[in-house]
Please model this.
Amino acid sequence: MRIGVLTGGGDCPGLNAVIRAVAKSLMRQCGAEVIGIEDGFAGLMDESPRTRALDWRSVSGIAHRGGTILGTSNTANPLRSPADTERTLANARALSLDGLVVIGGDGSMSIAHGLTAHGLRSVGVPKTIDNDIMDCERSFGFDTAVATATDGLMRVETTAMSHSRVMIVETMGRHAGWIALEAGLAAAADIVLLPEIDHAVEAVIAVCREREAKQRYTVICIGEGAKARGADLTVQSRVSGSPDPVRLGGVAHVLREQLQPHLKSEVRATVLGHVQRGGQPTPFDRVLATRYGHHAAQLVAAGRFGEMVTLQGGELRSVPMARVANRQRTIPADHPLLVTAREIGVSLGEG
Ligand code: F6P
Model:
């Protein structure tokens, strides 16, 4: 058996731990030959596919490393045109691939699902710091991102206290507020603004003013996809042809402009950006990534292509990729963490 492995979309802490677990499980259990595809789907779409053999040695000693040893791309899409699809399928035939393990987010799952329908059978592994994959309660990488964002929030808090400032910290997460909510709670932020709840700027001003009078400083955590009522998303750039054409970023600066005229304290904004995606995965993410990789290899061995491994109720399971493709899991309005935040006095910017 010859199985290809690729990492698609943005990088994420834990990718190497998945690659290692997939490759080692397939080699040990099935005697499979494992082929790494370089730079995500881009490496399979090129005129000459870019691959490297993943033997025991090459996947050893990588579980703790950030990024992906294979490289990735978040713009390559073999389904963009019939010619791209045909070349990708021809490359997979030339490589004698019996299947593919695709480690990626909702966009990559959509591509993997499409290729499976064309005969290139895939198994998926859910990857994203955003934790927004459907039917998956924890994607690997999220725990590390929350730890980094929490650290960032707590570091700016000392400046907020020392200078009696309002400090705004923007987290990643696209249209889902999981990172902002968990990091905001972990760092005891005073205000947490989420993409799922459009905030009232007046309500945010009121909390800051009250704190100016009593505690003298305020820490605000805002998800990059958050917006004020009636406002548009803050878009940093657009990438044509990408499965994810809109790059978000900068809403912290927009909020700073809105708050400053109404407050005595100085208001400053920090965008955490890609530090949340980098660095070593936490032990939790290494273990989760290893479990996912091992489980994906079991699906391959059982011939259960077209499925994505997932975590539900703390148990490893699998769901059809079709259910996950191009769908995002945002925070439901009745999520217990929202109730907890409100009841302990964290403002969610609701008017
Ligand atoms: O999906 C992961 C993520 O880090 C998002 O949180 C963020 O909006 C996006 O990727 C940034 O992508 P890029 O690195 O392409 O700017």
Remarks:
- The mean pLDDT is 96.
- The CA atoms of residues 199 and 349 lie 5 Å apart.
- The pocket of 6-O-phosphono-beta-D-fructofuranose is lined by residues 10, 74, 128-130, 172-174, 224, 247-248, 277 (CB under 6 Å).
